[in-house]
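Usage

Read records sequentially. Each one opens with the input sequence:
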Amino acid sequence: MRIAEEVTSGLRGRIPTEVMEVGTAPTTLPDDIDLLVVGGPTHAFGMSRASTRKSALDQADNGVVSKGEGVREWLTVLRIRRPIAAAAFDTRVRTLLAGSAAKGVHKALRRHRMVLIAPPMGFYVTATKGPLDEAEVSRAIEWGRSLAETASTV
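and closes with the structure output:
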C-alpha cells in the first residue's frame, strides 16, 4: 500500500486522487474517473492468487493489506462505461526470477480497452516480506507525476 501512496503523492495537485484497497474498490468504475492506476505485489511470478495470498498471510509478521480478493479477481469482474487512461505497477524482490504482476495487470487493462499511458512499472522491496526499498520512494513519486502529465494529454 505504501507504494500506491507514493505514486499518489506524485499525482496529487494535478489529478484528484484516492488510494483504494482492491477489496473496497467498486466493480463498476464511476463516470468521474479519468485515470486508473492499478498495482499489487508480485506473487509466484505474477498477480497474486488466493493460494499465494494465503501463503503471504501465513508468512507476514504484521498481517497483509488485502485479506480478501485480489487484483486478479477484481479485474475479472471490473466493468467500465468508457475507455479511460490507465497504468499498472507492482512490487517485487530484486532478482532475475521475480516475475511481474504489473505485466498481467497491464494486459487485463488492455482487455478492458483502457488507454494505457505507460508500460508496466515495477518497484522493489528489500525482501519477500518487504519493506519497500527506500530508493523507490522518489521513483514512485516521479512516476506518479509523469502519469499525471501524460493523462492530461489523453
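Summary fields computed downstream for this record:
- The mean pLDDT is 86.
- The domain at 2-151 is CATH 3.40.50.360 (Rossmann fold).
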